[in-house]
């Protein structure tokens, strides 16, 4: 039964699992990087979408009382078209009986196409000062606009007042809008109209600096002569009257094709065009007005679109990339938003279900009339798989030797190189057998122990775990019910003095044990913890033993028992004390194996979804619950945090903070109730807000890493965490 240890000085051949691990090791770090990049990409998509909607860096300032002493008088009294030929500021007026019809704030998917229909019907061109973020979101409208013979100008990227912005922000607003135009229509433009601008006599010292800087870059700034004020929705007659110039004068006229309900604008436009044509007016673009002005240079090509320049080279490709990125954001963010609403409702529903079923489970199992049947007093076999556990094995075996229930203790040494087997034997404890085997992994060690066990009930535990004297006795009592095939115990964190230990303690009490109460009543317990679980030997052998197919052999065997028709229950009073990882690296390694192994086990047993009987019950009840709450919702959870942080920074800090605190309050309530059921001291809940900000984020990344590994087909081996042996016999249950 006992395998001989490998000869000293001879290098043993690697096991199959270790060879697979070696092949996967080269891909481990790239997968971590890919997981981080995925989260970063989604964050960037969200920020891009917010920037497009002018939520990031939105202009909240209101101009009031600025002087214009630095602005030349001939500019203040000049025409609506401001150019800088040769570096000298010059204004151009629209020729008499000529209308340069301009539109601001588009393109809009509802209103701009209808405006274009009216212009085409009346054979009238227009100049559209477009917002870059809107161009990137609706590139097809801009293409149609240009193809129809209309002209476009820059109205900044986020509709921000440039007068209060830094030079770099001004440059960014202009360049991004030009890129959007390049990606949408393959052009750039030299025309510019500032948001919140009106006539040239309103230019002040703040804005004049901006116009000068843009003039040096080759931009022509366009103002207005008459304002329809259609954005006020004053009525169709008032819009037409406000847009009409006096005494046959030419005019740059302002309408809007976005920014609100433009119904009155659409009604007013035909009436206005007909009225002005009846008065002998002609309609043109800003470039057309400049071409018709006295002394203005004549441009080659189409005079109505003289401001347009073909986008080439880097500008063209960067513009297309911008439009493509915006398209992705436009589809992704709404889908994610809808998904997060579903996830949020599901999570809150789960909290409610857990509380109801946990309370029912506690009252049922602690009621005076409850019992599993006749007391189970026969001896049981306790299997302790051990690999380099010299720090912990002594405490583990001494705690088992103090058991009030008769036990046979089997230490299966899985090729340890630190003298674990020798230490176990040197303790000379009664009823302890040490079995040696070449290193083959935890499932092989457990199977070796099961084959060597002398009793029909086997208890499995980890080599770093400590049992209380009555743990085994309490753990095996459910086997009085012949339908019970396995029992999950209550795993507790022993080293709670560390920060990670305290966080993991909260998770064990709330996330694991509260869940197990719910799953117990629903008869779909997904996992018996490796630290403390009991099995009918017959049931395990019937299921084929502990499988090496997955990294989560505990989840694998639990699901296999469900499918075989055995009942799996939770015994909350059977407690085991285990050592939590002491460093983020060790925690990552542990949870990575757990998460990935759970995915493997679920995939392995996917056919239970269509099975009948007990197997189908788990497949249609347990499987969806595990997938939804252990994989899907945690994967989406980082996005909830990103949305929350984004809302705090750029939308409504107070509302976002209150929402986050409300969710935290719900979690604290559930945790407090779980601590009460487990009779734990609630002082650890003070760590919960910090746990939500730090520990939970790490768990999210681990799960994303596991998903990437699963999708790329990587494999891992049984990973041994470094232990300190600080968890000994507990002095009390409340810790």
TrEMBL record:
InterPro entries: Glyco_hydro/deAcase_b/a-brl, NODB_dom, Nucleotide-diphossugar_trans. Belongs to the glycosyltransferase 2 family. The chain crosses the membrane at residues 335-358, 625-649, 655-677, 698-718. CDD domains: CESA_like. Keywords: Glycosyltransferase, Membrane, Transferase, Transmembrane, Transmembrane helix. Residues 97-284 form the NodB homology domain. It comes from Streptomyces edwardsiae. Gene3D superfamilies: Glycoside hydrolase/deacetylase, Spore Coat Polysaccharide Biosynthesis Protein SpsA, Chain A. It comes from the Bacteria. This is Bifunctional polysaccharide deacetylase/glycosyltransferase family 2 protein.
């Amino acid at each position: 039964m006992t395998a001989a240890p490998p000869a000293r000085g001879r290098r043993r051949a690697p096991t199959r699992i270790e060879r697979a691990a070696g092949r996967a090791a080269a891909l481990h770090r790239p997968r971590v990087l890919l997981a981080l990049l995925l989260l970063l990409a989604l964050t960037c998509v969200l920020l891009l979408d917010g920037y497009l909607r002018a939520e990031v860096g939105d202009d909240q300032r209101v101009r009031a009382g600025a002087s214009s002493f630095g602005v030349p008088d001939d500019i203040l009294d000049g025409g609506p078209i401001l150019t800088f030929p040769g570096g000298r500021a010059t204004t151009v007026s629209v020729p008499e009986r000529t209308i340069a019809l301009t539109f601001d704030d588009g393109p809009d998917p509802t209103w701009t196409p209808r405006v274009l229909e009216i212009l085409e019907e009346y054979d009238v061109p227009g100049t559209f000062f477009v917002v870059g973020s809107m161009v990137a979101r609706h590139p097809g409208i801009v293409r149609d606009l240009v193809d129809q013979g209309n002209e476009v100008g820059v109205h900044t990227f986020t509709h921000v007042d440039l007068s209060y912005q830094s030079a770099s922000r001004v440059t960014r607003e202009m360049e991004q809008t030009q890129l959007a135009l390049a990606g949408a229509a393959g052009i750039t433009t030299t025309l510019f109209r500032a948001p919140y601008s009106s006539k040239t006599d309103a230019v002040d010292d703040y804005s004049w600096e901006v116009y000068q800087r843009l003039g040096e870059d080759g931009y022509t700034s366009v103002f207005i002569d008459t304002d329809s004020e259609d954005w006020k929705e004053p009525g169709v007659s008032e819009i037409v009257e406000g847009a009409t110039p006096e005494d046959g004068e030419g005019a740059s006229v302002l309408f809007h094709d976005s920014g609100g309900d433009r119904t009155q604008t659409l009604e007013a436009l035909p009436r206005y065009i007909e009225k002005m044509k009846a008065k002998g007016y002609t309609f043109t673009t800003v470039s057309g007005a400049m071409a018709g002005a006295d002394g203005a240079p004549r441009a080659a090509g189409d005079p109505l679109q003289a401001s347009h320049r073909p986008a080439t080279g880097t500008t063209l490709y960067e513009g297309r990339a911008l439009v493509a990125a915006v398209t992705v954001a436009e589809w992704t963010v709404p889908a994610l938003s809808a998904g997060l609403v579903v996830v949020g409702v599901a999570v809150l529903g789960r909290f409610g279900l857990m509380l109801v079923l946990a309370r029912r489970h506690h009252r049922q199992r602690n009621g005076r009339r409850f019992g599993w049947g006749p007391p189970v007093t026969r001896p049981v076999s306790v299997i302790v798989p051990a690999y380099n556990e010299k720090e912990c094995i002594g405490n583990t075996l001494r705690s088992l030797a103090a058991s009030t229930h008769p036990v046979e203790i089997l230490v299966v040494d899985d090729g340890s190189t630190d003298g674990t087997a020798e230490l176990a034997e040197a303790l000379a404890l009664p009823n302890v057998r040490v079995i040696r085997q070449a290193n083959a992994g935890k499932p092989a060690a457990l199977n070796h122990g099961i084959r060597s066990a002398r009793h029909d009930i086997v208890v499995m535990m980890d080599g770093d775990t400590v049992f209380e004297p009555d743990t085994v006795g309490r753990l095996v009592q459910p086997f009085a019910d012949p339908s019970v095939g396995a029992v999950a115990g209550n795993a507790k964190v022993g080293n709670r003095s560390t920060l990670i230990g305290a966080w993991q303690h909260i998770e064990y009490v709330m996330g694991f044990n509260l869940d197990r109460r719910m799953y117990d009543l629903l008869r779909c317990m997904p996992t018996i913890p490796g630290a403390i679980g009991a099995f009918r030997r017959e049931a395990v052998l019937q299921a084929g033993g502990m499988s090496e197919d997955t990294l989560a052999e505990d989840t694998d065997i639990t699901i296999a028992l469900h499918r075989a028709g055995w009942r799996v229950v939770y015994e909350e009073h059977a407690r085991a004390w285990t050592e939590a990882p002491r460093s983020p690296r060790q925690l990552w390694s542990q949870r990575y194996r757990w998460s990935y192994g759970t995915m493997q086990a679920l995939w392995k047993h996917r056919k239970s979804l269509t099975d009948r009987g007990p197997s189908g019950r788990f497949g249609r009840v347990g499987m969806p619950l595990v997938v939804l709450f252990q994989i899907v919702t945690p994967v989406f959870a980082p996005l909830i945090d990103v949305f929350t942080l984004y809302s705090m920074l750029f939308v409504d800090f107070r509302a976002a903070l209150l929402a986050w605190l409300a969710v935290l309050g719900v979690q604290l309530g559930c945790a407090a109730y779980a601590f009460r059921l487990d009779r734990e001291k609630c002082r650890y809940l003070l760590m919960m807000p910090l746990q939500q900000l730090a520990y939970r984020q790490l768990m999210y990344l681990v799960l994303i890493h596991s998903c990437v590994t699963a999708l790329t087909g990587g494999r891992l081996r049984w990973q041994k965490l470094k232990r300190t042996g600080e968890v000994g016999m507990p002095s009390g249950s409340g810790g």
